[in-house]
Amino acid sequence: MHSFDLHLPTRLLFGAGHLKNFCHHISGSGHRIFLVTGKGSVKKLGYLDLVLNQLRQHNPEIEIFQGIGSNPDAAAINRAGEQARDFGADVVLGFGGGSVMDASKCVAALARTGEKDIWPFTKGQPRYGTLTGALPVAAIPTTAATGSEVTAVAVVSKPEVQGKASVGAGFLKPFISWLNPEFTTKLNAQTTSDGASDILSHVFENYLLGGNTSPLADRYSEGIIDTVIRILPKVHRNPDDRMLRGDMLWASSLALNGFQQAGRNPSQFVLHAMEHSLSGFNPALSHGRGLAALYPAYFRWLLAHGRAAGRFNQLAVKIFHFEPSDPTFTSFSFIDRFEDWLRANGLYHSLPELGINQEHYREIAEYTVRINSGGAGHLDALGPLTSDDIVDIFQATEKQVSAV
Predict the structure, then answer these.
(1) Mind listing the pLDDT tens digit for each residue in 41-65?
(2) Under a CB-based contact definition with an 8 Å cutoff, are residues 199 and 252 in contact?
């Protein structure tokens, strides 16, 4: 195993019975609670009142910002940051999906530092990496997807420039997160599938590119992949099953807490770099659905260029129980079986089906490299991956047409 630095400051409360405990911890972090939500689903479903009623037993002052949408845009984050600063917030609570939790981290940073615009601090912008602090952040996820409840990263969109990029700093990690599977039982089938795709992406990234120096990280990652692949069809058949929803929610946190790559070679999040550019260009595109469209094309591109064959071969054996044979055959067999799973779960699409046409591939690919290469002129996927290669991957998705 290679050496690594892993910091896990987030207290995780799992299960429906932790409302009182969670609110006790939040209230102990400050008197003024700034609560960030999405477009209203937590209110409509009764979840917000449940939490507010318990919080109010501690007599805090609570200010609510409602309106964070999917692929949260910088303008909404900036408005929330100003509101939190004017309110004199002590702690920021994000209650919603990954977009809400990501936005809450950025709001906490703006309120703490006095900065008025989050976009200059995103990857590829002049002040990236220079944020100096944030208010304490707490999270209640209502989707099983991003793992934002345990990470130090937030993703921000700027529709005016058709851009999307990340912000990252250790102080952005939530100090506490409450994982209540009950809050995910009303997700529709497509959102549930999109979330599962997102979970898998967090494990695939370093598994494929990080080498084989950490067998424990391999077994851990394979366990998450196997769980998501097996559980998702069961969730579709039994959407109100809290045990199944709990498995997915826990997989979401486990997939991005750092254990999944500990001891391997560091690697870029290449899939995320490409997909963030896609959903930055088209903010209506779900992150998980965009990732799913890229999986087969990106995987085949890697194999066609002699990269990660051993890792795909291992996945075929461990996940789909192929007998070890010719590594190339088995590696492509993994992709074929994974495509079957994507089809069965509403995740098999071409980019044009998702609203991104060939005429835009080049500009999206060049944006991907410009923002994520650190000036190198290419991404690193066990070797260079250029904007031309990204265009090829985008074009290859056109063979993936979902059943009507």
Answers:
(1) 999 999 999 999 999 999 999 999 9
(2) yes
